[in-house]
Amino acid sequence: PLPVLAVVGRPNVGKSTLVNRIIGRREAVVEDKPGVTRDRVTYEANWNGRRFKIVDTGGWEQDVLGIDASVAAQAEFAIEAADAVVFVVDATVGATDTDEAVVKLLRRAGKPVVLAANKVDGPSAEADAAALWNLGLGEPFPVSSLHGRGTGDLLDAILDVL
Ligand code: GDP
Ligand code: MG
């Protein structure tokens, strides 16, 4: 079976944009189960000749659970099923309490994590990315999922741990 990469993070940080960027906007759903996994969508991806599955999360944003519990629940399910995780943070916003809660989950899960500091659209936002060292997850990779900036380096780091 192909290794599985989960993409987790708060609503609107750019998870789906990053997934689309990584899969080259091929909307090829390879798994779309009903029930608890209804909002986790799995795609097949390929980087430098290595194939893997990538799981987008985030369909429960309107959930009655409230935002923190919803993000945490989705992250927990996705992390459990994954071999490695990309944790996406909006670098222009910085780390929020919800982000910190996800960091705790990630620590507990003990799976390899790559930190994507998203919305770094230009050099002036690099400092925002560097501030995310404070999350304690290692090097933040500055990316612009929207424009493609930095996503190659991010993918190299992902493939190193996947
Ligand atoms: P998700 O809820 O985490 O899946 O976030 P989306 O992928 O739906 O993106 C939320 C919003 O952020 C959308 O308006 C995107 O266009 C925007 N966005 C995503 N990535 C970037 C980025 O790298 N730079 C900028 N400026 N906007 C982005
Ligand atoms: Mg999304």
Automatic annotation (TrEMBL):
UniProt-annotated binding residues for GTP 1: 9-16, 56-60, 118-121
Domain EngA-type G: 3-162
Record text on subunit structure and interactions: Associates with the 50S ribosomal subunit.
Family indicated by similarity: Belongs to the TRAFAC class TrmE-Era-EngA-EngB-Septin-like GTPase superfamily. EngA (Der) GTPase family.
Known role: GTPase that plays an essential role in the late steps of ribosome biogenesis.
Protein name: GTPase Der
Organism: Actinacidiphila paucisporea
Highest classification ranks of the organism: Bacteria, Bacillati, Actinomycetota, Actinomycetes, Kitasatosporales
Encoding gene per record: der
Full-sequence portion shown in this chain: 46 to 207 of 485
